[in-house]
Amino acid sequence: MNFKKFLFVGAALMSVSFFAACSDDENEPQNPPVEEPDEPNGDDPEGPVSLEDQWNNTNTVTWPVDTIINLTNHYTVPEGKTLIIKEGVQIIASTAGVGANHVPVEFTVNGNLYCEGTEEKPVRFSIPEADRTEANIFAGLWGGIVASETCGEMLIDHTIIEYTGGQVVEGSPAATSGVYTAGDDAYPQITTNNINGKYVITNSILRNGWSDGIYLMGGEAIIMNNVFAANGFDGAEAVNVKAGCKVDIAGNVMFSPNTNGLKLSSSGQSENRAQALVQAYNNTIINAGWRRDGEKGGCIYVEKNILANVFNNLMVNCKFRAMTPSFDIPNDPEEGYDDDSVIDYNYYASGNQASDIVWDGEDESGVAYAWQGYNYEHEDYNVGVVDVHSVIATENDLKDPQFVGFDINGVGLTDYVYNDAWDFHLQAGSPALTGACDGTEAFAAPYFSTTGLTVNGETYTSPAVAAHYGAYGE
């Protein structure tokens, strides 16, 4: 990443404390409930328990159901230790930042993190409720979750992560540790950096961030059944994968990523960081690429020696088709993608509306309609190899997938505010229900559908390949 954005947010720095929600008034802080004597979150007659002190003489800390955690400083799960976050917990990061330089609050995981939300009571990483406005969608008001090279396991289940993307500056923990560069990078909602780590991100919502939704620089991961919305202000993707990763990405909805839903690259490959391996299937990507200038991006971008099989995805109103830059230089970590990759059997649908931003001029496409971008003579379209069997809309055949509750002609191409009432299931008789791979093809096998990934003693398996396009069938 190379983002240039400095955020200066003024407010007083407060002390860090640990509060539990009160059933009568959730805004009135109370001490955590009394736990068993050997639990770290026991009753404290002196007042609220310091977040740092919770780690004294224990390897596991649990934040109980419906607790409110106010972060006015950076928070770290120490190496070799485990934090369990139960359903309904709210982690609220101060928008004032830390110290005189207002360094964005960072949630660093050097040990293990298990977010155990439920559909009824998700875990929530956010900012104060008054600041959760449309105007702040891309304000980058805190630093997100950074899983370092010592983070062994992480589960993000039924969790909302929002309003991230603060600028990495001098004094940011991620700059000090070398994960990111001060002045050049902005925080994604989730970062991973351990090539031996195991990560499961499922049933969650990652929205309203100045940078990427997920930035994977290492580890084995399952990313399934999530909703991504409004990821990236003037660059960035919903999911961004680099070398040292082996990942299944399936069943996700990605609405209005600035550049791509999927940026898949083996950038950083070396003796210590293996070639990136990705299976990306049955995802629905909508409105990708329109807020990004130039001819880069638009739904899927595959480069730099990654071995990526990308199939059965449903792209709706995206700016371009799947791109494979430098495809004439295969199997080179600095240039082309691995030519054993299969990027095919995808469905590209278009509405009939034009973008309200059309980028014209040198190195600009002038593309105004999705169908136009799909059929554009792009230098990064590997014609005859990529999307040979894909369904691609044209001006006279827009390939409406017939969603149950989303009008592909009624939402602006540059819109980025997600509507929870939308339903991306397919109507009976939808053309997107047929023609996809059935999962028996050799290239189509997910990495973790059989063996799974074991996190916190539980084995999670990737979804089976569904013989329809997109995240949801009927």
What attributes characterize this protein structure?
Right-handed parallel beta-helix repeat-containing protein; Pectin_lyase_fold/virulence; 474 residues; mainly beta; nine-stranded parallel β-sheet; Pectate Lyase C-like; globular; signal; 33 strands
Describe this structure in words.
- Residues 24-54 are annotated as: Disordered.
- InterPro entries: Pectin_lyase_fold/virulence.
- This is Right-handed parallel beta-helix repeat-containing protein.
- By secondary structure, this protein is an all-beta fold.
- The chain has a single domain, classed as Pectate Lyase C-like (3 Solenoid).
- 2% of the residues lie in helices and 28% in strands.
- The chain has helices at residues 173-177, 370-374, and strands spanning 17-20, 60-63, 67-71, 75-77, 82-86, 90-93, 107-109, 112-116, 123-126, 145-147, 153-157, 159-162, 190-192, 198-202, 205-209, 214-216, 219-224, 227-231, 237-241, 245-250, 253-255, 260-265, 277-281, 284-286, 300-303, 307-311, 314-316, 347-349, 391-392, 403-405, 423-426, 453-455, 458-460.
- The strands form 5 sheets. It has a 12-stranded mixed beta sheet. A 9-stranded parallel beta sheet has the order 2-5-8-11-14-17-20-23-26, with no helix packed on it.
- Strand 28 (347-349), helix 2 and strand 29 (391-392) form a beta-alpha-beta unit.
- The longest helix is centred in the middle third of the chain and has 5 residues, at 173-177.
